[in-house]
Amino acid sequence: MEAPLENRIGRLFIQRGQKLVLAESCTGGLLGHLITNVPGSSEYFLGGITAYSYEAKQSLLGVKPETLIQFGAVSRETVLEMAQGVRRLFSDQVAEERLVGVAVSGIAGPGGAQPGKPVGLVWIGLSAVEGNWAAAFYGQGSREENKAFSARCALEALHAYLEGKLTLGKSGE
User: Fold this and answer.
1) pTM of whole model > 0.85?
2) DSSP assignment of 112-149, as one string?
3) Structural domain of residue 119, as residue ranges?
4) Beta strands across the sheet bearing 99-106
5) How far apart are CA 138 and CA 117, in angstroms?
6) How far apart are CA 128 and CA 169, in angstroms?
7) Does residue 28 sit within a domain?
8) Number of domain units in the chain
9) Residues 105, 75: Cα–Cα separation, whole Å
10) Which of 11, 67, 102, 145 is in the most buried spot, having the most CB atoms within 10 Å?
């Protein structure tokens, strides 16, 4: 039987000598919870920020106000800035080139849908020394199910990155 995804991610981080930092919004810390369920996760997980409001995204993660105004919190542009921002935030502890930042922002529901942004929409962003990546996913469940779906999508994207199966672009791409 294959080890849980969280365990495989941990082993890959240790092998690669990299550290993980998180910027969560709609998951409210669930992604960090899943990561820290793994014994020994302190070897590669530095911490995370739950930045739920626009103000927190701006002041803690450095998301530009114009990004939030133009694209909204649930957007490719915002999760890329969140992922880059959380790497910068933790770079006083570990060299930024060793940090992998993952960001999650979505609409868990049951309310909050907007034109073109249905309940269940989540954007996952990843920032690493090689570049940046973001993608949208769509959950179909209750609020709790959409949060769990969002965290799982982030873990799968992180695993794909660590295995070299995620194509990263340069800053802002």
Assistant:
1) yes
2) --BTTB-TTEEEEEEEETTEEEEEEEE--S-HHHHHHH
3) 5-162
4) 45-50, 19-24, 99-106, 121-128, 131-138
5) 10
6) 10
7) yes
8) 1
9) 8
10) 102
- The pLDDT of residue 135 is 97
55: which residues sit within 8 A by CB, 6+ positions away? none
> Cα–Cα distances in Å, from 2 out to 5, 6, 8, 160, 172?
9, 11, 9, 16, 35
CATH number of 48's domain: 3.90.950.20
Residue 98 lies in a domain: yes
The pLDDT assigned to 173 comes to 45
- Rounded to whole angstroms, the Cα distance separating 83 from 124 reads 9
> Which is nearest to 153 in space by CA: 60, 41, 49, 30?
30
| 168 in any annotated domain | no
Q: Does residue 127 sit within a domain?
A: yes
Query: How far, in Å, CA of 130 to CA of 50, rounded?
Result: 25
- Within 10 Å of residue 43's Cβ, how many Cβ atoms? 11
d(CA 24, CA 83): 9
Average pLDDT over the chain reads 95
By CB neighbour count within 10 A (0-12 exposed, 13-18 middle, 19+ buried), where does 171 fall?
exposed
Tell me the two tokens of residue 68.
């939030």
